[in-house]
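Memo to structure team: turn this sequence into structure tokens by end of day. - J.P.
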Amino acid sequence: MSVLVKICGLSTPRAVDAALSAGADMIGVVHFERSPRHVSLDLARKLFARAGTRAARTLLTVDAGDAFLADALSLLRPDFLQLHGREPPERAAALRAAFDVKIIKALPVEDAADLSAANAYAEAADMLLFDARPPRGAALPGGNGRSFDWRLLRGFAAPAPWLLAGGLDAGNVAEALAASGAPGVDVSSGVESAPGVKDEAKIAAFLRAARAGVSRVGETG
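Reply from structure team:
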């Protein structure tokens, strides 16, 4: 049994190196100006080039327009485009078809009823990401360091591969994996020393905890 680990919100070469050295399967960069993890397309290109093919590369955007996405995807050639806004299934499907890119759709979760939204993306997304619903009035749709009841996902028949996100860190990722049965996890603020500042030691600790945690789940499950 193996768990997929994605480190998102990377913004420096050292952070990319730390994620790769620790064994991350996926890395992500954020292009959303209100985020403390926002990077320019030029910097994103350099970070992706540094990663090469050592991990799947993800560009995170929020309700971005076609013109921007055409330029960004042409320049960066990411493995995944992560839609972290209010993009409906029709929008996700149209982007996947128009730009020939794999789609990760982030879905906010607060209670069991929120999981039903996933089914609409069965033919529109290649992967789903279940993140904690942001607090009312929050400036960011994700990366708020909030978690939800991970047990809601236990036994949930998701229509696509999925990742668990929201409030994860080295201290709770094993518990989150055991409670949710998640096949993969995504972390951003949980491996930072300050908003937008990735901590190399925390990245390494998170990867160790995730790998160890899934091993214990496999032994007891």
